[in-house]
Amino acid sequence: MTKRWGSTLLLWFVCLVFAMPLIVMVSGSLKTPEQLARDPYSVVPESPAWSNYVQAIGSMPFWRYLSNTLILCGGCVIGTTVSCAMVAFGLARVPWAGRKLLFALVTVTMLLPWHITMIPRFVLISHLGLYNSFWAIIAPTFLGDAFFIFLLRQFFLTIPQSYLDAGRIDGLSHWGLFWHLVVPMSRPALATVALFQFIQTWNDFSGPLLYLNDPQKFPLAYGLERFVSSYGDQTHLLLAAAALFTLPVIMIFFAAQRAFVEGIATK
Amino acid sequence: MKDELELELPLGLKTRDQVISIRETIPGGAISSKAIHDPASHTNVQATTLPNPIENSSLKSSGSDHRSDTVAGWLFCSPWIVGFLLLFAWPFVASLYWSFCRFDLVNPPQWVGLANYYRIGAEVGTGKGYGLALWNTLYYSLLSVPLSVVMGVGLAVLLSAKVPGQKFYRTIVFLPSVIPVVAASVLWLWLLDPESGMINYALSWVGIPAQNWLVQARSVAEPETMSVIGTGKLLGSKDAIVLMSLWSVGNFVVIYLAAISNIPASLHEAAQLDGAGVMRRLIHVTIPMLSPVIFFNLVMGLIRSVQTFASIYVLSEGTGEPGGSLSLISIHLFLSAFADLQMGYASAMAWILFVILLVVTALLFRTSRHWVHYRVAG
Amino acid sequence: MMIRTLFMVLLMHLSLGCTPGRNSTESDFRQPEEVVFWHFWGGEDRVVVEHVATRFNQSQSKYHVRPIAMPGNNLNAKLFLSVAGGDPPDLVNQDDPVLADWATRGLIQPIDAAMSGTESEKLEKWLFPAAKSLSMYDGQFFAVCNGLDIRALYFNRTALQEEGFVAPETIGELDAIADHFAGLNSRDSNLPLGYLPDSRRLWAWSYVFGGSFLDPASNQLTIDSAANVAALNWMSGHYERVGIDRAIAFRSGDQSLPGKTFPLLPVQGDQNAGRYVMMMDGQWRVRDINRFLAQRETDNLTMPEFGACSLPVPSDDSLQPRTNAGWVNGNVFMVPAGARNPSGAWEFIKFWIGFNDPAIAAKTCEAGGWIPVSPEVVQTDSFQKYLKREPLFASFVGLAASPNQFPTPKIPGALKLQRTVNAAAYDAMTHPDKNAVDLLRSAQAEIQTSFDRMDFDHKEGSK
């Protein structure tokens, strides 16, 4: 019994340590600058200063940033899902000679550090005239992503061959098998890929740092960093902006947790 | 449909694992330290080597089918083939070539032979420039990776205890690792403020003097730092980013948790029958059974820690300061390339880093034979 | 279905958002041409800058300036990326030491090309000599200075008078004041120091002592010249008379760090530890002093009197000291290579500096507390009135016309030169065992190495 109490106490302590930064972020974002200076750590703000959020949104082209972010996310999600599904199908379900070598290459590229490719990629993108356009960030996703290809290939491999054979007998081509059979059967996996690409693009900081220079085109992640540079001393606004930026990801996390990974958490 | 349901588990696990990589968005795009194989149970990796149903079907296919298969294969894989050539193959060749050049991005590259490598060698000797960056990276990786393994395993063992509210605890521990890295950095910039930050406030409860987190370049764990010992301010900026990285240890915890749940209960029961207590079961059953996952996280954690960029960029406001203490290789490379326009030097350091990583990974694989216990069949 | 609609909407957005060009959404052919202007100003200055742009946009219909604040540390990196990426801004503002570096690399283009007929010759004569030296490289206007930063010796006249001193005119007088206050301070550390040099001010003192850092005729570095060594030894002398450790501790709250109050300003009561009676600083401190005095007035406190004078001169016969001398720097406008609209940028530059209408620039300088770049702006009625109201500021404007105000030498890698010299000076001042000559000599060798390398690199490549 005492052991049980001990571990519960320890668990509560651990949770407090992990949750505290988030709690003070939210409570700090709701404090007036005066209260924040006087009493930064109390969990409950005296009277919630929602105006911080209004002010944070007003101090930057928030809606513009948000719509840029959503465009980038949308473009990248489409690019990744389409390209990775196709490639994964080609690797998993089309019997051809090159696929083993190609799959080995896919896995190898996952291990390479970005340091080497960063500069040449920049040169490539600017030679293609994509610098300072959303395509600089979106276009590469149409060329597949090793991890997502790997993930989808694993999934496609589990589709029973008998389904595909049946499709073949019905006269479906490879494209037909892919589009009418594999894609509909793989919705959960495709949704997973889409979801994680969405979050990845939402959080992406270095893409815009390298490729975008017009504030009209900045997404939120980069806009937030610019905001830190301009309003570094106005903590209440910074916290409000950070909380605003975080909220959608947390919402997606909770929604997705139920949809995709509930099995693990409870098992 | 039944098949699909069973698949949820490994798939879901990978997706969680994927969250790891999302925290570290990196320049240049797609490649990052993503999980390669299902870390939960090594048996899963073997899915790729299982007899492939396609083989059977291809045996049946006729000659014309064979040709159409090949065409279809090339077509379906063409996006990635183009991607490989444009985003990997060419960049590798180009950056190797540029590492022997003086190149400022605006004017054409000029061949300078080994000058950039000599410069790096000299800097490693003097501890400036790349030498400093290498040291900073080493410090950060050697501290954050082992700590994240220890903390990850510890938390996973704690969170695997069957107590009410288990799911809640797990969610809380995992939550920080989904916070976007820029937002998390903004938050930590405030938490680590030496005067008004909460971390120092919390330390004061347990009687630890306030630390000069992001202000002090050196820390007690570094050479030439006798000066900080007397002050009680023993921790500096690199310790701050280690601390921040440990906050998002949750993604590792999830992987360990899944692995723990895969340990057959019979092993624990057998150990218990032999009279092993909690600690002995941890050391003799749980940790050996976790060793493949620990190994995996060690390798991935290392590659990931070397690539940490966005958080350090935000925390040091894009400078690598104070005193060059946050000039890790990723930051030093970015600044050398784009603030000093020394693409040749930057390419050379990327290649050196790449070789170092290769060697370290190979060494890790070597040593893994002695301490990683792969289960034979699950 | 929903997915398909979303897809279409996205594609539409992409086609709008993805064109690198500007103004692509508007079809009105009389739309003014856009001039994208990057700057690093923040706070009150940013308001002034944006106001100038608005006034310019209203003054004519051909161009529309869009000012973009690029705060933070990596304006340069962003600019390089944009030049390499082929979509740079049309105009950028930066501190002057980058000029030679950027010009030799081909990152910026000479603005002369956008000037018509005699404008270039007229501009040369129109600018203050200091402003001209900050603007030109290789005989061309690679930049146009838009504001000068001039340093002078600020002093607390009241505090000086209380001890029987007046503003110093020679190094000897300055030393006497410093000695006197150092003596007082050693008995009561709550009293201010008279003067304690900042190692970064070696530039200014070297020019006063008759020194230089680059011989323009031979293009040779002269970092270790006798006058520079004399200036540095004199500066170290001030550290020694206070005591090195005490001096370092005193300096740790550096006056130029952001967020610190100007340490010339006395604190009420006798808590004046870490403060000075005299210190060298730039014209932007006038704002701080005015604010301080206004606060004292509302608080009904005594009002100390402040002044600023040109840097005192040594009376050493072996040197060739310069009067009204100092180290000048400034913000310069530059047009990046590949900019779409250099003519629009030049029109805006003219508007800003008051090339055609000095009264406009006078207004801007009054609003920002900036020093004009041309005597013509200074001579406008409104600016003269402003100077009458601001006598302290006027002494800085007076120095702007001096021929003895010199910038950091215009060489590629000037920033590194600046940093290396500053580090050597700091070393010399804080380590009595180290020798100023040796330190300056090794700084010179270090710079020479990288100078040679860059010289070889860029000059051969671009010429």
Brief characterization of the structure:
The complex is a heterotrimer of chains A (267), B (378) and C (463). By secondary structure, chain A is mainly alpha-helical.
What attributes does this structure have?
heterotrimer, A: 267 residues, mainly alpha, MetI-like fold, 2 domains, 0% strand, globular, disordered C terminus, C: 463 residues, alpha+beta, D-Maltodextrin-Binding Protein, domain 2, 6-stranded mixed beta sheet, 3-stranded antiparallel beta sheet, 19 helices, 15 strands
Architecture per CATH nomenclature, i.e. the level-2 architecture of the largest domain in chain C:
3-Layer(aba) Sandwich
Q: Output the CATH topology of the largest domain in chain B.
A: MetI-like fold
Biggest chain pair contact, residues each?
A-B, 119 and 124 residues
List unreliable stretches of 5+ residues of chain C. 16-27, 254-259, 455-463
- Determine the CATH superfamily of the largest domain in chain C: Periplasmic binding protein-like II
**Strand content bin of chain B:** under 5%
Beta strand count of chain B: 2
User: What is the residue-averaged pLDDT of chain C?
Assistant: 84
Helix amount of chain B: 55-70%
CA distance, first residue to last residue of chain B:
24 Å
Question: What pattern of helices and strands is seen along the backbone of chain B?
Answer: HHHEEHHHHHHHHHHHHH
- The CATH architecture of the largest domain in chain B: Orthogonal Bundle
- The level-1 CATH class of the largest domain in chain B: Mainly Alpha
